[in-house]
Design a protein that fits this description.
By secondary structure, this protein is an alpha/beta fold. The protein is built from 8 helices and 10 strands. The protein is 37% helix and 16% strand. The strands form 2 sheets. An 8-stranded parallel barrel has the order 1-2-3-4-5-6-7-8, surrounded by 6 helices. The chain has a two-stranded antiparallel ribbon with strand order 9-10. The radius of gyration is 18 Å and the shape is globular.
Amino acid sequence: MTKSLEVCVDSYESAVAAIAGGATRLELCSSLVDGGLTPTPGLLLQVLEYSKKVPIFCMLRCRPGNFVYTSEEIEVMKKDAMILQKYGANGFVFGALNANDEVDMKQCREIIMACFPHPVTFHRAFDVCKRPTIEIEVIIDLGFKRVLTSGQQTTAQLGVKLIKNLMEQVGERICIMAGGGITKQNLAFIMEHTEAKEYHGSFKKVKEAADKEKKGEVDVGNEKIYVTDQDCVAEIVHILKTV
């Protein structure tokens, strides 16, 4: 059965590398160092100018931190969804919880309605839920099309047992996408122990600076820049096709 790979990217350079490496789908974000935030319409348009062959799902997350949102923050993300739809987004990625780490049904319904008719993925906020086998049923009932999860562990490799159990529970009702710390070294293990159809990762590397010497005393703009490693994506795709 064909396996697919979603690569999360937060820059034009990374998007190009992911597509060239063979990604099936992009999760387009800004600021992956913060776990991924809503991308700008400009970034979406630029990536679409490069290629319209690979579906682009846009993150809807208006700030870093937890997944408990105010009604005003939900309004921000609904407006973002409408704008990004207008400019060509193929789908969206979102998740909202209440103070008890349960899926916030009201807020999720509002976002799914704002994104309609495009599919919406429930992101790794799921990995914070205290009762995953119950919350997955809520997510299905709300109309999400897939869930991204590491099996509530720091990596998908450690979470294979829950991922497998969730897949057996949901059958074909929703797609369980394995993600979190996936590498070319552990992918075959994760595939064998989950039998997931979809996989997710950033597969990033540090970008070499053109000028490695810091100029002046002010330490602004000298943070490391991470970009998608095209060769790594290609190796991951190869494993998915051959294992």
